Amino acid sequence: MAGNTFGQSLAVTTFGESHGPAIGCVIDGCPPGIPLAEDDFDHDLARRATGRTRHTSQRREEDRVEILSGVYQGLTTGTPIALLIRNTDARSKDYGAIAERFRPGHADFTYWRKYGHRDPRGGGRSSARETTVRVAAGVIAKRFLERQYGTRVRACLRQVGPIRAAQTDWDFVESTPLFWPEPSSLEQLEAFLDGLRKSGDSIGALVEVEAAPVPVGLGEPVYGKLDAELAAALMSINAVKAVEIGDGLAVVEQRGSQHRDQISRDGFASNHAGGILGGISSGQPVVARIALKPTSSILIPGNTLDVHGEPVEVVTKGRHDPCVGIRAIPIAEAMMALVLADQVLRHRAQNADVVDPGPVLASEGHDKAG
Length: 370
Ligand code: EPS
What we know:
Elements: E1 5-6, E2 11-16, E3 22-28, H1 42-48, E4 65-69, E5 71-72, E6 75-76, E7 81-86, H2 108-115, H3 131-149, E8 152-160, E9 163-164, H4 170-173, H5 186-199, E10 205-212, H6 226-235, E11 240-245, H7 256-259, E12 263-264, E13 267-268, E14 276-277, E15 280-281, E16 286-292, E17 302-305, E18 311-314, H8 329-351
Antiparallel strand pairs: 1-2, 2-3, 3-7, 4-7, 5-6, 8-9, 8-10, 10-16, 11-16, 12-13, 14-15, 17-18
The structure holds ligand EPS.
């Protein structure tokens, strides 16, 4: 495989470039009987879209999904679902000046050295445009999880540069296009982003994503651990440089007596583990965070080489995101939903006949996968 497919029982293959005629995906293994219409994709695609706020790229894509297969009379049929989104607002002339020079910190260099031939328009295949169809595939995974277990997958921006939200007001998150969870610091964040945009620079961000309720039992020892697959899926999002599960890097300073989530009949007393023990979901919310780098397409001149090896200066003009973390919220949700849905189907395949030893927590009811 050449790296464009992920998932085992629910496998998603994406294709397309930022400035090609279209992008799309094929979702294979989706259970039959799930209601699905083209409009169902609109909400999440709009949450991810460029041009919703002055703080993101101003490219204006329609992001209209066409369902080419796998749905009949409004229900999935169990056959491959092919989705297509046509690119309608590519402006390739923006890339004329940098087509032959490598943006420092960009995949320009590695694609060129690996393949020897590349589509430089809009970053080609390395563009965040590809994440559009992941979000579309995620809509189906979210719907499956919601119908099976009432699972809701949601994400928010946790930190942008030096500004960190200490509180989480989930109702507030969706009320602004910045997906910021803390009303009291939103103004400070807006001012920071305005200053950043004027300076022509970019900034990194931390995104938090969680799923709940998640049934006990998802994940396979040892190489199919739920956290391992989540980390791989989240790391595959453009610009992600680190993934944390549960307390993540903070475990370095913790003691076992602090980190363990003590258990009583009433449930777990805390969730330092992020809902995963031994690579298998515990029934607690699954919690992850991703760190996204400041993007390399900036207006501040930098030193580089061109494809002929000549030293040159590079400046990236055009319509770029000063903070890609903002638009990563629905992408992180989609990747988590796809990993969980895939693990549900794999769990069923192996363990459908397991005799359930029964719930041990008072809160447990029908929350075991199966
Ligand atoms: C992107 C660069 C910009 C963004 C694009 C991601 O593309 P362009 O230079 O063609 O305007 O607009 O994001 C999208 C189009 C999208 O839908 O997410 C990049 O280099 O990754």
